[in-house]
Each structure stands twice: as C-alpha cells, then as structure tokens.
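Structure in, sequence out. Go:
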C-alpha cells in the first residue's frame, strides 16, 4: 500500500476566484494543467449551507441557485504539499481540508 493525501475543497457554483474568473475552472486549470495531479473529482451537492446558515437547495421554486460543490484531489503527500500554497491563495483556508490515506495498489510513476 502507498500513502496519498486527499484534499477536499468546498465552494459554490459560480463562485469567482480572486481575479474574478470562475473558481471551478481556475482550480481545474491549476490542478490538471499546471500541476498534473493524479486525480480530481467534482461533486455537486443538491443542498447545503455554510457558516452564515443560508441554505442553498436545488428545487423548482429557485431559479438562481449557487449549489455547493466539493472538489476532491488525490496525489502523493509531496505533490499535495507543493500545491497547498496555491490552493490557499485561491480558496479561504477554512474551506479546505486534507488528510492522508492508503491506496491498495502502488502509484505508478
């Protein structure tokens, strides 16, 4: 088994990065094109709320909803530690969690 790090980033649909571009696109560009991480998956929530308690939910009565998104990234601990400063510059640190995990098969280089 090999050790990997998993990063989970919480944000909303349509959220903007500090340079006013789409945060989701900027994150994918950073992770896929610039750093070539081993894997990333974006999950779209059907409902959620944050520290302000405002519930965002997918229903027919709301036409302009910014549903919660969760981006999960997996790579070696060294690669993830190298990416963390860039992620912290894009997303509030309280919206990022990460931990070490074990994978069953060794990572191929």
């Amino acid at each position: 088994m090999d050790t990997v790090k998993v990063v989970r980033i919480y944000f909303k649909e349509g959220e903007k990065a500090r340079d006013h571009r789409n945060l989701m696109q900027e994150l994918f560009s950073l992770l896929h094109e610039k750093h070539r991480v081993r894997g990333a998956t974006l999950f779209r929530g059907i409902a959620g709320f944050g520290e302000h308690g405002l519930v965002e939910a997918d229903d027919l009565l709301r036409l302009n909803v910014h549903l919660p998104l969760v981006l999960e990234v997996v790579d070696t601990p060294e690669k993830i530690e190298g990416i963390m400063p860039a992620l912290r510059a894009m997303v509030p640190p309280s919206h990022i969690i990460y931990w070490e995990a074990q994978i069953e098969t060794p990572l191929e280089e």
